[in-house]
Amino acid sequence: MLRIDQATYDAIVAHAKRDHPDEACGIVAGPEGSDRPERMVEMVNAAGSPTFYEFDSSELLALYKEMWARDEEPVVVYHSHTATEAYPSRTDIGLASEPGAHYVLVSTREHGNNEGAVEFRSYRIVDGEVTEEEVSVVDHLSPEE
Amino acid sequence: MAVEVRIPTILRTYTGGEKAVTGEGASLGALIDDLEANHPGLKERLVEPKDAGPDLRRFVNVYVNDEDVRFLGGLEAELSDGDQVVVLPAVAGG
User: Fold this and answer.
1) What are the residue boundaries of the MPN domain, all occurrences included (chain A) (predicted)?
2) Which residue among B8, B9, B90 sits closest to A55, beta carbon to beta carbon?
Protein backbone atom coordinates (compact mmCIF):
# COMPACT_ATOMS: atom_id res chain seq x y z
CA MET A 1 0.00 0.00 0.00
CA LEU A 2 1.08 3.55 -0.74
CA ARG A 3 0.47 5.99 2.09
CA ILE A 4 0.72 9.55 0.86
CA ASP A 5 -0.31 12.85 2.40
CA GLN A 6 -3.02 14.99 0.85
CA ALA A 7 -0.73 17.93 0.00
CA THR A 8 1.71 15.75 -1.93
CA TYR A 9 -1.14 13.94 -3.67
CA ASP A 10 -2.65 17.29 -4.70
CA ALA A 11 0.72 18.58 -5.92
CA ILE A 12 1.25 15.52 -8.15
CA VAL A 13 -2.24 15.93 -9.62
CA ALA A 14 -1.66 19.67 -10.15
CA HIS A 15 1.64 18.97 -11.93
CA ALA A 16 -0.02 16.42 -14.22
CA LYS A 17 -2.85 18.85 -15.09
CA ARG A 18 -0.45 21.73 -15.70
CA ASP A 19 1.75 19.78 -18.11
CA HIS A 20 -1.15 18.15 -19.99
CA PRO A 21 -1.11 17.23 -22.92
CA ASP A 22 2.56 16.36 -22.33
CA GLU A 23 3.43 13.76 -19.73
CA ALA A 24 4.53 15.14 -16.35
CA CYS A 25 7.07 13.29 -14.21
CA GLY A 26 8.88 13.48 -10.91
CA ILE A 27 9.63 11.70 -7.68
CA VAL A 28 8.82 11.89 -4.00
CA ALA A 29 11.91 11.19 -1.94
CA GLY A 30 11.99 9.90 1.60
CA PRO A 31 14.49 8.63 4.16
CA GLU A 32 16.12 5.36 3.05
CA GLY A 33 14.09 2.36 4.13
CA SER A 34 11.29 4.48 5.60
CA ASP A 35 8.68 4.06 2.84
CA ARG A 36 7.66 7.67 3.61
CA PRO A 37 7.12 9.92 0.58
CA GLU A 38 8.15 13.24 2.16
CA ARG A 39 9.84 15.47 -0.38
CA MET A 40 8.34 15.92 -3.81
CA VAL A 41 10.63 16.90 -6.66
CA GLU A 42 9.03 17.88 -9.96
CA MET A 43 11.23 16.96 -12.88
CA VAL A 44 11.29 18.34 -16.41
CA ASN A 45 10.15 15.85 -19.02
CA ALA A 46 13.17 16.10 -21.31
CA ALA A 47 11.19 14.25 -23.98
CA GLY A 48 8.48 16.97 -23.90
CA SER A 49 6.04 14.46 -25.31
CA PRO A 50 2.43 13.31 -24.85
CA THR A 51 3.54 9.68 -25.13
CA PHE A 52 6.97 9.51 -23.48
CA TYR A 53 8.82 10.88 -20.49
CA GLU A 54 12.46 10.92 -19.50
CA PHE A 55 14.34 12.80 -16.80
CA ASP A 56 17.10 14.97 -18.25
CA SER A 57 20.38 13.13 -17.70
CA SER A 58 22.21 15.91 -15.83
CA GLU A 59 19.16 16.69 -13.71
CA LEU A 60 18.87 12.98 -12.95
CA LEU A 61 22.43 12.92 -11.61
CA ALA A 62 21.88 16.08 -9.57
CA LEU A 63 18.70 14.59 -8.10
CA TYR A 64 20.38 11.33 -7.06
CA LYS A 65 23.42 13.10 -5.62
CA GLU A 66 21.11 15.23 -3.52
CA MET A 67 19.23 12.16 -2.30
CA TRP A 68 22.48 10.33 -1.46
CA ALA A 69 23.71 13.35 0.51
CA ARG A 70 20.45 13.33 2.50
CA ASP A 71 20.28 9.51 2.91
CA GLU A 72 17.11 9.46 0.86
CA GLU A 73 15.74 7.24 -1.86
CA PRO A 74 12.94 7.63 -4.40
CA VAL A 75 9.88 6.37 -2.52
CA VAL A 76 7.50 7.37 -5.31
CA VAL A 77 8.27 7.71 -9.03
CA TYR A 78 5.32 9.35 -10.74
CA HIS A 79 4.31 10.24 -14.26
CA SER A 80 1.13 10.99 -16.14
CA HIS A 81 -0.63 9.43 -19.08
CA THR A 82 -2.54 12.04 -21.00
CA ALA A 83 -4.62 9.96 -23.41
CA THR A 84 -4.71 6.50 -21.85
CA GLU A 85 -5.55 4.89 -18.54
CA ALA A 86 -3.36 5.14 -15.45
CA TYR A 87 -1.77 1.75 -15.98
CA PRO A 88 1.92 1.12 -16.76
CA SER A 89 2.64 0.85 -20.48
CA ARG A 90 4.97 -1.80 -21.87
CA THR A 91 7.70 0.85 -22.01
CA ASP A 92 7.04 1.80 -18.38
CA ILE A 93 7.43 -1.81 -17.35
CA GLY A 94 10.54 -2.40 -19.46
CA LEU A 95 12.33 0.67 -18.10
CA ALA A 96 11.25 0.50 -14.46
CA SER A 97 14.51 0.43 -12.53
CA GLU A 98 13.59 1.18 -8.93
CA PRO A 99 12.27 -2.11 -7.52
CA GLY A 100 11.71 -0.47 -4.13
CA ALA A 101 9.62 2.43 -5.41
CA HIS A 102 5.89 2.97 -5.71
CA TYR A 103 5.21 3.77 -9.36
CA VAL A 104 2.35 6.27 -9.43
CA LEU A 105 0.40 6.80 -12.64
CA VAL A 106 -1.99 9.72 -13.05
CA SER A 107 -4.27 9.91 -16.06
CA THR A 108 -5.44 13.33 -17.21
CA ARG A 109 -7.29 11.95 -20.22
CA GLU A 110 -10.71 12.96 -18.94
CA HIS A 111 -10.33 16.61 -17.94
CA GLY A 112 -6.93 17.64 -19.31
CA ASN A 113 -5.80 20.96 -17.84
CA ASN A 114 -9.19 21.59 -16.25
CA GLU A 115 -10.73 20.95 -12.88
CA GLY A 116 -12.10 17.47 -12.36
CA ALA A 117 -11.20 14.06 -11.11
CA VAL A 118 -8.16 12.16 -12.34
CA GLU A 119 -7.20 8.52 -12.10
CA PHE A 120 -4.42 8.17 -9.50
CA ARG A 121 -3.10 4.63 -9.15
CA SER A 122 0.02 3.03 -7.71
CA TYR A 123 2.03 -0.06 -8.65
CA ARG A 124 5.08 -2.06 -7.80
CA ILE A 125 7.09 -2.99 -10.87
CA VAL A 126 9.70 -5.67 -10.19
CA ASP A 127 11.39 -7.82 -12.84
CA GLY A 128 8.76 -6.91 -15.39
CA GLU A 129 5.90 -7.85 -13.10
CA VAL A 130 3.26 -5.23 -12.25
CA THR A 131 1.31 -5.36 -9.00
CA GLU A 132 -1.29 -2.72 -8.31
CA GLU A 133 -1.59 -1.57 -4.73
CA GLU A 134 -4.02 0.42 -2.64
CA VAL A 135 -3.47 4.17 -2.29
CA SER A 136 -4.23 5.62 1.12
CA VAL A 137 -4.37 9.42 1.19
CA VAL A 138 -3.95 10.79 4.72
CA ASP A 139 -4.07 14.36 6.07
CA HIS A 140 -0.48 14.05 7.27
CA LEU A 141 1.99 11.20 7.43
CA SER A 142 2.08 9.97 11.01
CA PRO A 143 5.10 11.16 13.02
CA GLU A 144 8.24 9.14 12.43
CA GLU A 145 8.69 6.24 14.81
CA MET B 1 44.83 2.94 -11.35
CA ALA B 2 41.67 2.76 -9.30
CA VAL B 3 38.30 4.20 -10.24
CA GLU B 4 35.31 4.15 -7.93
CA VAL B 5 32.03 3.16 -9.54
CA ARG B 6 28.68 3.91 -7.94
CA ILE B 7 26.21 1.10 -8.63
CA PRO B 8 22.44 1.71 -8.74
CA THR B 9 20.07 -0.39 -6.63
CA ILE B 10 18.84 -2.46 -9.55
CA LEU B 11 22.36 -3.64 -10.45
CA ARG B 12 23.53 -4.45 -6.92
CA THR B 13 22.55 -8.07 -7.45
CA TYR B 14 25.81 -8.24 -9.45
CA THR B 15 27.93 -6.63 -6.74
CA GLY B 16 26.75 -8.62 -3.75
CA GLY B 17 24.69 -5.65 -2.61
CA GLU B 18 27.62 -3.21 -2.67
CA LYS B 19 26.69 0.40 -3.47
CA ALA B 20 30.13 1.12 -4.90
CA VAL B 21 32.90 -1.01 -6.33
CA THR B 22 36.40 -0.29 -7.54
CA GLY B 23 37.76 -1.11 -10.96
CA GLU B 24 40.59 -0.29 -13.30
CA GLY B 25 40.86 0.85 -16.89
CA ALA B 26 42.21 3.66 -19.01
CA SER B 27 38.85 4.02 -20.74
CA LEU B 28 35.25 3.42 -19.74
CA GLY B 29 35.15 0.34 -21.99
CA ALA B 30 38.24 -1.11 -20.31
CA LEU B 31 36.78 -0.33 -16.88
CA ILE B 32 33.56 -2.15 -17.72
CA ASP B 33 35.55 -5.19 -18.90
CA ASP B 34 37.48 -5.13 -15.62
CA LEU B 35 34.24 -4.90 -13.61
CA GLU B 36 32.78 -7.79 -15.59
CA ALA B 37 35.68 -10.01 -14.51
CA ASN B 38 34.72 -9.52 -10.85
CA HIS B 39 30.98 -9.03 -11.27
CA PRO B 40 29.84 -11.26 -14.13
CA GLY B 41 26.66 -10.14 -15.84
CA LEU B 42 27.16 -6.46 -15.18
CA LYS B 43 28.54 -5.66 -18.63
CA GLU B 44 25.50 -6.99 -20.43
CA ARG B 45 23.30 -4.58 -18.47
CA LEU B 46 25.43 -1.60 -19.47
CA VAL B 47 26.56 -2.33 -23.01
CA GLU B 48 24.78 -3.63 -26.10
CA PRO B 49 26.03 -4.57 -29.56
CA LYS B 50 25.22 -2.02 -32.24
CA ASP B 51 26.03 -1.85 -35.95
CA ALA B 52 29.05 0.34 -35.31
CA GLY B 53 30.24 -1.89 -32.44
CA PRO B 54 29.39 -2.13 -28.75
CA ASP B 55 27.87 0.96 -27.19
CA LEU B 56 26.23 1.99 -23.94
CA ARG B 57 22.60 0.99 -23.67
CA ARG B 58 20.21 3.81 -24.53
CA PHE B 59 18.56 3.90 -21.11
CA VAL B 60 21.66 3.63 -18.95
CA ASN B 61 23.42 6.83 -17.97
CA VAL B 62 27.09 6.79 -17.01
CA TYR B 63 28.86 9.83 -15.63
CA VAL B 64 32.56 10.47 -15.14
CA ASN B 65 33.20 13.19 -12.58
CA ASP B 66 29.58 14.36 -13.04
CA GLU B 67 29.81 14.57 -16.82
CA ASP B 68 27.55 12.36 -18.97
CA VAL B 69 29.95 10.08 -20.88
CA ARG B 70 27.91 10.55 -24.04
CA PHE B 71 29.68 13.92 -24.23
CA LEU B 72 33.06 12.36 -23.44
CA GLY B 73 33.19 9.71 -26.16
CA GLY B 74 31.01 7.00 -24.63
CA LEU B 75 32.93 3.77 -24.07
CA GLU B 76 36.06 5.55 -25.38
CA ALA B 77 35.91 8.11 -22.56
CA GLU B 78 39.32 8.32 -20.91
CA LEU B 79 39.71 7.67 -17.21
CA SER B 80 42.35 8.72 -14.72
CA ASP B 81 43.28 7.51 -11.27
CA GLY B 82 40.76 8.72 -8.71
CA ASP B 83 37.96 9.41 -11.20
CA GLN B 84 34.43 8.94 -9.92
CA VAL B 85 32.07 6.98 -12.13
CA VAL B 86 28.32 6.88 -11.49
CA VAL B 87 25.89 4.51 -13.21
CA LEU B 88 22.21 5.52 -13.17
CA PRO B 89 19.41 3.91 -15.12
CA ALA B 90 17.27 6.43 -16.97
CA VAL B 91 14.00 7.31 -15.29
CA ALA B 92 11.79 7.09 -18.34
CA GLY B 93 8.75 5.45 -19.81
CA GLY B 94 5.78 5.95 -22.06
Assistant:
1) 2-126
2) B90
Taking CB atoms and an 8 Å limit, are B10 and A97 in contact across chains? yes
Could you give the 3-state DSSP secondary structure of residue A30?
strand
Q: How many CB atoms lie within 10 A of CB A114?
A: 9
Neighboring chain A residues of B90 at a CB cutoff of 8 Å:
54-55, 57, 60, 95, 97
- ipTM for the assembly: 0.94
Whole-angstrom Cα distance, residue A88 to residue A121? Answer: 10
* Distance from C-alpha of A87 to C-alpha of A104, rounded to nearest angstrom: 9
Beta pairing class for B47-50 and A53-54: unpaired
- What DSSP designation does A55 have? B
Q: What is the pLDDT of residue A143?
A: 80
Set of chain B residues whose Cβ sits within 8 Å of the Cβ of A53: 92-94
Tens of pLDDT, residue by residue over B16-47, are 999 999 999 999 999 999 999 999 999 999 99
Q: Residue A100: list chain B partners with CB under 8 A.
A: 9
Helix (H) or strand (E) holding A8: helix A6-19
Model confidence pLDDT, tens digit, residues A47-101: 999 999 999 999 999 999 999 999 999 999 999 999 999 999 999 999 999 999 9
Report the DSSP beta bridge partners of residue A138: A5
